[in-house]
Predict the structure.
Amino acid sequence: MTGMQMMNENPGALVPELLLLGSAVVGLLLGAWLPRHRQWLVRLLAAVAALAGLAATAAAAARPDEIVFGTSYAVDTLTHATRAIVLVAVLVALALSVDGTAGHRRETEFVVLLQLGALGTILLAGANDLLLLFAAFLLASIPFYALAAWDKRASSTEAAMKYYLSGAFLGVTMLTGTAILYGIGRSTAYGPLREGLAAAPSAAAAVGLVAVLAGVLFKIGAVPAHFWVPDVTDGTPAAVAAIVTTIPKIGGLVAAYRLLLVAVPADVVDWPLLVAVLAAASMTLGNLAAFFQTSVQRLLAYSTISQVGYLLMVVAVAGRAELAQPALLVYLAAYAITNLGAFAVVAELPQARTLDDYRGMARRHPGLAVALAVNLFGLIGTPPTAVFVGKLTAFTAAVDGDLAWLAVLAIVNTVASVFYYLRWLAPTFRSPDERAPEGVLQPAGSWSALSAYICAVAAVLLGVLGGVLIPALSRAPVM
């Protein structure tokens, strides 16, 4: 180990990550001794750790960018933004899951698995080495496999098995790609790997990169690694579905952006075209599959696949458009808060499984209906919501990066998505159906509704203030 590497071993640069880890470990030990009616203390500990992590992230963002622990972990704008987005998402997930998990004998496990998965997600974003990338992939996957089967229902167990088997297969593929890239590039660190790949055979580099991207595509739920998304989303409780369709995507997309920009020369492997094709396939297939869904959670599952397509559009122009990085980060923040808000409404009405079950909701729960409308219009990208700012910036970046055809396709898909979101909203504002079963719109409690309201307000505020954030998010990743 060199002296420079020893100097870079600075645990102080990882305070937000260490807070999540410490809270998860302490929470697990605490939950083993607490009675069932006091497991809420573990949730409180997790919320305090997330808030402290946000404060530590703000302090770290004021310091110069650096690479710590040799060349393995980058602490820069991409990492800071991912920390902030993930920690806010954890806070929202903790709140929207209260009604469904409070007092449950496995409440502590739910909170701990959420924190460990969130930790892996942040590590994905900061990974500057292929080995750390794969380790983060595992940490961002295994806790969520367990979380999918958390309530031990038959549908949840089946969903967890599909989730695990897909992840295991694509994880092995990712590890194989890591070995190939190391073999031809003579390094796993992104900087030296770029130099090695510049002189490597293009065919071998392409095979290795595609294999590594297979694992990342699984993490973000993009085509062709999307098959688990609808089944896992529809087969698990709304709180779990909200987590697995939101949090892993944040780190996975930032990881793809950093890997392609820093480690892979575009003149050796034409990855911009590859990612553009994947983006086009994801947004189009996700929208087409969502058109005639009747299950609200399955509809949201295909919606997340289409949203990943729009986000991959920004990854495709990494390094070729000045707005690429801020567009990715703003869009990720907007998507996270808006998607969690939509799932919070679903969590508040656990008996309403289909679109028709929401008929008359505006009359019985007018505030919740407004929150649903704001979040669904936000997912479309309607002004002044945050996703509108994200999409507008992403479209601009695509055009600047010579992918105007992809921006046009994204606009067409955005217009088409209005159809299936309105299919959900239309019955919400109709007169109640007298033949509907009793209790189908019975609320689960107040925490899920409060989360939906907060997310709806935040989606609008972030949309209004999104333009202010763009300059602050433009600093290129450290290399």
